[in-house]
């Protein structure tokens, strides 16, 4: 870069030197005039010589004097020697230095004669820095005593526009100049990287005829003479699109982006405008000025011939005279002879070769592997995320998640390739950004295993290091979607607080202020997100407000939402809340997608299979970019990339947490269970897993205070057995051997095997376990326990051994317990005493009732003794009296329970019962066991 800058400054100095030398020479001639005034005649002539210029006086002395005499010769002589003296220095080194500079700044096709390169399609990549100068001809200063030629070149691509003025007598020279320059640029870059637009006020075709083979390949567009507006509009659209896509990360130009990231894929657009010397209409004039002003940064190069206009951006000019030209680079005194053009035949041949090569390149099949860069994990996400997701004409089409397009909405009917698109897009991103730059949270509401690939499996033990959380088969568990949104909202606040502490507002600034902090961008993907809003209930309402919050404020905290759906049209949260929808600026429409793009934009309807419209402008037409999406789910595509990334993962990196709605969480693998330790004053009973991002256990603290009993309510045995078993096993882990007593009562026949299995495990842990079966035994046990309560009453310390009484099917013993004994008390009285007074004496009842009504029958009064409960197949309204009278919204669903602990909850939460197989197996699960 420094070298380029130095070169640029030496180019400027060299040309400046030329100009000042010439100017000084003329100025000195004026000085000479002063001196010759001393000698009147000589002075008179010298004055005239200076007035017409020495060069002219030499060519035609009659302009100075009628007949030559000594005074005239003397004046000429003096003028000559003065001029010579001034020129000597520049003539000695100037032309050589210029030649060397041009050779360096205009290498290859930019400066060499066409004989050396014409016909060979170019090889330069878009990301390579363009030549600084492009040769147009040979210059000379005729007035110089030793007029040595030097190459003349002009800055073009990314640097300056070009204005050509002719006197309309030399249209051929005008066309040759343009054609030579365009050929140089076309032949420098790989075919396709330079697109040419031609507009000629005078004719539709026939301008630059040699270039016409480019037309069929789409590399040259001849615009209708009457429709300049359309061409300018197209260029303006292009500028807008570049700003909202490639430059959306904050770079000021494609050039700056390329210098910073090595990335540049946008082709250059050379717009050639041939006028007739008449100015454009005011409106078009302004449009052209806008393109001129903003075009260079977006790869638009103007070559404007014979159109009077003021340009407020970098522009060089060439003025054509009869045989020669003058340029702004060389100043008015240097005469430029333009390079001769190649024959029409050669030009046509060269353009055909470029077109053919382009068509071949365009039609080559690009695959998932082409989305993966040569070097992995080199990009930084400070200002946004950008990666290709597909290809257009063999060139990558990128998606950008950044300040200007923070969130994306993906739509397409079932089977149109949404999941595949997500794999392509995420593949491009995870290959470019390391897990310190990008974290993924992925959720799929539909049945299936779309994102399971990212977690370790039996056949493929690798996982995606960027993935923090993967949710599959979430279908019914809409609460999991809520949990994710809640997590994002919390993270957003955490980031905002950190930013505030550093007195900044955005993630990008926070990263700059706190470079040692870890602030990856977060991409949260929710596939089939319409499930989240499937019912008009509190989940939908909460999801809507969370979504609004994250969509609105996530932008500045680097949190990006990617929502995909088969049908966005019915999602009230979107249509009813334009504030949410508007934040989803990036729209991706797969074939036949409805309503993802703007209403008038029907591009998705005509889309071929495995293509997508990628639109960074909220779906309006001019933002459409059509891309072919490679197969990203076949074997050897994403899985292969994942394996490479997995091998690069940081030591100690943990696999993503998996939430699989079709499986029950294994108690033995849960950190909340394996981490339980003995010696706790108030042990917790784990009952199931709540639906949150961390997979936390639902826990009830069994402390020595009233109401610390647990009711499991519902008719399904497996659910009740799971909750009671998990509670017993977790409590057992928190007491040293023989320091807790378990009484297990199997009151219904079907639980006998479960009870025996539990007994075995509790005994293995060294706990005294009294197991009884049948209702008579239950009546007996409650009597014994009630007496124990009486015995213990008055004790306040924790000296007593804790007792856990597990009742499987309490209600089955109701009739038997109703009978009164000799002392006129019944089994139910004993049970009620147990529930009421037990917890304070460290006797806790954990009972299973088969309906809510039956719990009430047992208690025969207020339900305060049941401090915590888990209900399964029970409707919400039956539970309100157990939840402090509040309305409970709950429709039972298979293998899901509702958990409420009156000491900590304001409202019940959904839990998944545990799979106990591992925890009941012989051997003690270790802390942190997998
Ligand atoms: N670009 C592609 N190239 C080749 N095959 C593809 C491409 N996109 C999708 N497919 C194939 O089409 C099928 C459906 O794709 P995908 O699962 O991505 O669609 P979807 O829109 O997510 O559908 P659904 O909503 O039913 O899951 C898959 O078998 C996938 O392999």
UniProtKB/TrEMBL annotation:
Entry keyword Nucleotide-binding: yes
Keyword Isomerase included in the entry's annotation: no
Gene3D superfamilies named among the record's database cross-references: P-loop containing nucleotide triphosphate hydrolases
Keywords: ATP-binding, Nucleotide-binding
PROSITE patterns for the chain: FTSK
UniProt cross-references to Pfam families, sorted A to Z: FtsK_SpoIIIE (PF01580)
Matches recorded under PANTHER family: DNA TRANSLOCASE FTSK, SPORULATION PROTEIN RELATED
Annotated InterPro entries: FtsK/SpoIIIE/SftA, FtsK_dom, P-loop_NTPase
Lineage top rank: taxon: Bacteria
Domain FtsK per the UniProt entry, residue ranges: 394-599
Transmembrane spans: none
Annotated protein name in UniProt: FtsK/SpoIIIE domain-containing protein
Residue numbers binding ATP: 412-419
């Amino acid at each position: 870069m420094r070298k380029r800058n130095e070169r640029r400054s030496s180019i400027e100095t060299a040309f400046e030197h030329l100009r000042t030398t010439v100017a000084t020479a003329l100025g000195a001639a004026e000085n000479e005039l002063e001196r010759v005034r001393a000698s009147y005649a000589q002075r008179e002539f010298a004055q005239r010589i200076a007035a017409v210029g020495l060069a002219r006086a030499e060519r035609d002395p009659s302009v100075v004097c009628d007949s030559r005499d000594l005074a005239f010769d003397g004046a000429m002589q003096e003028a000559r020697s003065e001029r010579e003296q001034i020129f000597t220095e520049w003539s000695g080194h100037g032309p050589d230095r210029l030649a060397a500079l041009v050779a360096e700044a205009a290498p290859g096709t930019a400066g060499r004669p066409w004989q050396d390169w014409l016909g060979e399609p170019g090889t330069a990549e878009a990301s390579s820095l363009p030549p600084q100068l492009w040769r147009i001809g040979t210059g000379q200063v005729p007035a110089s005593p030793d007029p040595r030629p030097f190459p003349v070149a002009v800055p073009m691509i990314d640097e300056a526009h070009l204005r050509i003025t002719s006197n309309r007598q030399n249209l051929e020279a005008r066309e040759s100049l343009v054609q030579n320059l365009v050929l140089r640029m076309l032949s420098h870059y790989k075919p396709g990287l330079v697109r040419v637009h031609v507009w000629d006020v005078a004719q539709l075709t026939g301008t630059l005829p040699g270039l016409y083979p480019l037309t069929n390949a789409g590399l040259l567009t001849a615009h209708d003479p009457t429709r300049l507006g359309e061409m300018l509009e197209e260029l303006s659209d292009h500028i807008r699109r570049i700003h909202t896509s490639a430059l959306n990360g904050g770079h000021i130009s494609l050039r700056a982006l390329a210098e910073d990231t090595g990335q540049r894929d946008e082709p250059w657009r050379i717009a050639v405008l041939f006028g007739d010397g008449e100015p454009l209409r005011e409106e078009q004039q302004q449009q052209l000025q806008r393109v001129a002003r903003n075009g260079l940064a977006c790869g638009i190069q103007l070559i404007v011939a014979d159109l009077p206009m003021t340009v407020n951006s970098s522009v060089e000019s060439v003025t054509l005279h009869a045989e020669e030209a003058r340029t702004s680079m060389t100043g008015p005194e240097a005469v430029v002879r333009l390079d001769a053009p190649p024959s029409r035949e050669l030009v046509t041949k060269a353009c055909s070769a470029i077109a053919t090569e382009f068509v071949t390149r365009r039609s080559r099949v690009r695959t998932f592997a082409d989305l993966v860069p040569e070097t992995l994990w080199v990009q930084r996400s400070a200002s946004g995320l950008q990666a290709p997701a597909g290809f257009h004409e063999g060139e990558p089409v990128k998606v950008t998640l950044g300040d200007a397009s923070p969130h994306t909405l993906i739509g397409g009917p079932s089977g149109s390739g949404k999941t595949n698109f997500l794999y392509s897009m995420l593949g491009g991103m995870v290959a470019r950004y390391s897990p310190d730059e990008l974290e993924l949270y992925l959720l799929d509401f539909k049945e299936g295993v779309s994102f399971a690939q990212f977690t370790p499996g039996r056949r493929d033990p690798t996982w995606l290091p960027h993935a923090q959380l993967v949710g599959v088969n979430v279908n019914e568990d809409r609460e999991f979607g809520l949990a994710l949104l809640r997590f994002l909202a919390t993270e957003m606040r955490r980031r905002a607080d950190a930013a505030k502490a550093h007195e900044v507002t955005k993630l990008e600034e926070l990263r700059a202020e706190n470079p040692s902090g870890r602030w990856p961008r977060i991409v949260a993907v929710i596939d089939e997100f319409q499930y989240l809003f499937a019912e008009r209930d509190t989940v939908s309402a909460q999801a809507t407000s969370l979504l609004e919050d994250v969509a609105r404020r996530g932008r500045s905290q680097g949190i990006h939402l990617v929502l995909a759906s088969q049908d966005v049209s019915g999602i009230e949260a979107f249509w009813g809340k334009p504030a949410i929808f508007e934040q989803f600026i990036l729209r991706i429409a797969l074939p036949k997608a409805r309503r993802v793009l703007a209403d008038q934009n029907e591009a998705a309807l005509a889309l071929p299979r495995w293509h997508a419209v990628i639109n960074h402008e909220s779906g309006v037409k001019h933002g459409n970019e059509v891309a072919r999406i490679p197969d990203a789910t076949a074997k050897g595509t994403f899985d292969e990339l994942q394996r490479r990334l997995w091998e690069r993962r940081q030591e100690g990196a943990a696999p993503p947490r998996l939430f699989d709605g079709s499986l029950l969480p294994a108690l033995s693998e849960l950190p909340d269970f394996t981490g339980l330790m003995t010696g706790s004053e108030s042990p917790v009973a784990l009952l199931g897993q709540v639906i949150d991002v961390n997979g936390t256990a639902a826990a009830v603290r069994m402390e020595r205070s009233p109401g610390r009993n647990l009711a499991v309510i519902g008719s399904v045995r497996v659910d009740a057995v799971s909750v009671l078993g998990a509670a017993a096993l977790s409590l057992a882990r928190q007491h040293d051997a023989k320091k807790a007593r378990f009484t297990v009562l199997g009151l219904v026949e079907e639980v006998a095997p479960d009870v025996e299995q539990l007994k075995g495990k509790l005994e293995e842990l060294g706990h005294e376990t009294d197991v009884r079966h049948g209702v008579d035994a239950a009546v007996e046990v409650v009597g014994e326990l009630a007496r124990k309560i009486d015995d213990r009453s008055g004790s306040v310390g924790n000296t007593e051994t804790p007792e856990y009484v597990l009742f499987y099917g309490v209600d089955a013993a109701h009739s038997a317990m109703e009978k009164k004994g000799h002392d006129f008390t019944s089994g139910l009285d004993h049970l009620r005493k147990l529930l009421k007074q037990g917890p304070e004496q460290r006797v806790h009842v954990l009972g299973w009732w088969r309906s809510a009504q039956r719990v009430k029958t047992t208690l025969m009064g207020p339900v305060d003794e049941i401090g915590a409960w888990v209900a399964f197949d029970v409707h919400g309204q039956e539970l309100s009296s157990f939840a402090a009278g509040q309305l409970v919204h709950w429709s039972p669903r298979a293998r899901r329970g509702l958990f409420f602990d009156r000491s900590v909850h304001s409202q019940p939460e959904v839990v998944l019962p545990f799979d106990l197989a591992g925890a009941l197996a012989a051997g003690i699960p270790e802390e942190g066991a997998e």
